[in-house]
């Protein structure tokens, strides 16, 4: 692993620990929670696989699964997951690989798994 890759990996692990620490604190205070996790990316997704977003029943959140691109939609789905108790696999992005051939640099796809905690 290169020095840059090692630094990115360490930063990603630190961010995950921060999010999971927040989740533990929120759970201890009695909040109902969901955890969203990036499980697959394709193209220019800004967050790597394994990135987390924790959401409470009021829509408060910590972390990131897309750098702001789809967080609002993930938060709305997470609130539904908290209420219903059923996990969801969400997919966002360009549905066609030809997007790259025509130069859509912001294209890509991301899959996010959302599950209730506790």
UniProtKB/TrEMBL annotation:
Ranges of residues in domain XdhC- CoxI: 26-93
Stored Pfam families: XdhC_CoxI
Source taxon at top rank: Bacteria
InterPro entries for the chain: MoCofactor_Util/Proc, XdhC_CoxI
Designated name of the protein: Predicted sulfurylase small subunit, molybdopterin cytosine dinucleotide biosynthesis
């Amino acid at each position: 692993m290169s020095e840059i890759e090692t630094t990115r990996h360490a930063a990603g692990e630190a961010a995950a620990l921060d999010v999971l620490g927040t989740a533990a604190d929120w759970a201890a205070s009695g909040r109902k929670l969901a955890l969203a996790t990036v499980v697959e990316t394709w193209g220019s997704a800004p967050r790597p696989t394994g990135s987390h977003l924790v959401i409470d029943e009021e829509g408060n959140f910590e972390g990131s699964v897309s750098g702001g691109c789809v967080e609002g939609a993930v938060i709305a789905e997470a609130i539904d997951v908290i209420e219903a108790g059923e996990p969801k696999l969400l997919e966002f992005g360009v549905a066609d690989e030809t997007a790259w051939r025509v130069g859509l640099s912001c294209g890509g796809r991301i899959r996010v798994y959302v599950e209730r905690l506790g």
